[in-house]
Design a protein that fits this description.
The complex is a heterodimer of chains A (about 325) and B (about 270). Chain A is about 40% helix and about 15% strand. With about 325 residues, chain A is α/β, with parallel strands linked by helices. Chain A has one domain (about 20-320): TIM Barrel. Chain B has helices at about 15-20, 25-35, 55-65, 80-85, 100-115, 135-150, 170-185, 205-220, 235-245, 255-265; strands at about 1-10, 40-45, 70-75, 95-100, 120, 155-160, 190-195, 225-230. In chain B, strand 6 (about 155-160), helix 7 and strand 7 (about 190-195) form a beta-alpha-beta unit. In chain B, helix 2 packs across helix 3, helix 3 runs parallel beside helix 4 (about 80-85) and helix 7 (about 170-185) packs parallel to helix 8 (about 205-220). Classes of the chains: A alpha/beta (about 325), B alpha/beta (about 270). The interface of A and B includes residues 195, 201, 235 and 239 of A.
Amino acid sequence: MQNVPDVRESWPNPIYTVTLGATPKEGGTRTTTVTVGGARALPFHSFDGDVPHPPVVAMEVWDVPAEDWPEHVRAPFSEVLRSPGEWARKCVEEYGADLILLRLVGCDPLRENRSPKEAAQAVQEVLKSVGVPLIIWGCGNPEKDNEVFPVVGEATARENCLLGTITQDNHKTLVAVATAYGHKLIAESPVDINIAKQVNILAMDAGFPLENLVIYPSTGALGYGIEYVYSIMERIRLAGLGGDKFVAQPILCDVGREAWGVKEARAPKEEVPHWGEEGLRGPLWEATTAYMYLLAGADILVLRHPQAVRAVKEFIRRLMEGR
Amino acid sequence: MILIGERINAGFKDIGRAIREKAKEPIQEWARRQAAAGADYLDLNIGAVSKDPKDMAWLVGVVQEAVPTPIAVDSTQPEILRAGLEALDGRPALVNSTTAEDKKLAKIVPLAVEYGAFLIGVVSDEQGSPQDVARRVENAAKIFAAATEAGLTPDRIFLDPILMPIRFMQDQAKKVLEAIREFTLLSDPPPHISVGLSNICSEAKERRLLARTFLVMAMAAGLDAAICNVLDEELMAAVATAKVILNREIYSDDYLKVWKLRRGGGQ
């Protein structure tokens, strides 16, 4: 019999291992922690090298009722939309979320313009109602986020949350908050590998360890630039495994927000009859977007619809088992 | 880019004197400075003042005391190379060098294999240094074949096309660039390709500019190693920039800062 050549690839540099959440022993109040990264191979290529931690699913909760979500993704949460704590509990207890992402949409000056103190209250509610680690995402207005995060960061001190996002133009306040209160950070870039690297350099330059960062390279929905993001993520992961420690961080994909922003997921059947039932189509759009990003190297997926969560978790389980 | 610090060479007066007088301090000072500048290897050469293998063993010991950097044992004499390799404390080593001469290949290739070292093969032969591209390539192929046959994988082999002083042999630099391109075709993945960079500016006035410009051009042709002055900051900045331009490193606005941090052992 002919010898089969060994074509396994080995990589010189593992992806940083990032643990979120802190149990009472570690100074926090979480009942579980979540660890991502650590891979020494491309996604699910466990035949090449160790892939110690499967990707995880965070479910998205807002500090204000998510009135802008389409009815068919809002419906599963209709009872709890007014209470971030109850909403988060439902995500964890009924739908199996590994983490909760609390998006402080209500702080946006163009929306409810809620105060830093109100934001901190919402965070506290979620912390009390669930035991999983938290991702806390600002409203996206840099000035407002810089007012909100010092208060929110202190209110969650030692809980080892993931805060976001820092950008090329706005990173100093959040770096200071995360350093002072023991949190980790999401580094955002606009589908641009050079800026992804630069943001991490800036964070490090401000004194923040590279191993406490998660890369958010921006996310596009299926049909809306997903291939650009995919190739950027692929290059980030290849460079990280190849030895570039400035892009060797785990990657987060904000799938729900993007997938539920496009008409393929939102439009009711009455508007586009040949697309079929939106109750099935929407979650499918969200899950399929997530599948793509898993293959590109996503470590944390943020999702909205319980059906998408269930499908994606099953997909991850099967890929990790090599089936 | 694999950078081999050239400064611990008895051809430099202070190093020559230190080796004769067995004075550790000047040698260790250069070892520390080159290591801090990010040298991947430190080249050690006693040739100008000693033919005694014991002096090479002493020199290796002195440098090992000062820094953890890998060492390139540099001599034309197999006994001196062996003495240097024998004195190593287990860190990675580079044998510098064999030529394509049969008698050199027969003695020096087995040394690299025996000590698990990397090997530089300089493309000169029984007739001396080649002046054309074809013989450079022919000798490179001969060295490569001898080394792989002895068990060295391409990633453990460095080929040196022999750089000549531009001041005296102006036509040679271009031929070296062509030879580098040819060397990259010897195998897939290709062997390392290295030059003694300071040769090009021997006796010239604009030494640093010549070295820097040639190095960048040679990197574009496929060079991935050099014995050079790692303390020349502009040379280092040019290497960092060439890496970005050749897409061997992801660009970021602060790529120079990253390079300095990494070379300084920070990242």
